[in-house]
Amino acid sequence: MFKKLSPQVWTILLTVFLTFQTFAETQVFYLTLENHVFTPSSLEIPANKKVKVIIHNKDKVPEEFDSFELNREKVIFPGKKAVIYVGPLPAGEYKYFGEYHPNSARGRIIVKGDANVN
């Protein structure tokens, strides 16, 4: 049965397999926004890896996750979750804040690991 598959079908199957493998290896991290404060305020992620950050807004008002250093902006509606993909990044510290409550909704992502490894 498999011998009769065309090269195009094999290419599609390989692409689908590699896509699923990539998503399966993506680490997931969680942030919560409550009372206009991100918890945890410091989130550690590995260097040189793309990660998925899920942010749950438990407040009754929207907030915008904003980071100039990460080049990310995302409005998170009340009671909803949002997904932000981050990286791959070299080791270091990257700050973020809530644009609507910048004095209280603050945090940082600490990227740990060897910054020279790809």
Task: Give a nutshell description of this structure.
The protein is α+β, with helices and mostly antiparallel strands and 118 residues long. The protein is built from 1 helix and 9 strands; from the N terminus they run αβββββββββ.
Explain this structure to me?
- With 118 residues, the protein is of the alpha+beta class.
- The chain has a single domain, classed as Immunoglobulin-like (Sandwich).
- Helix content is 16%, strand content 45%.
- The chain has one helix and nine strands; from the N terminus they run αβββββββββ.
- The chain has a five-stranded mixed beta sheet with strand order 3-9-8-5-6, with no helix packed on it. A four-stranded mixed beta sheet has the order 2-1-4-7, with no helix packed on it.
- 19% of the residues are buried.
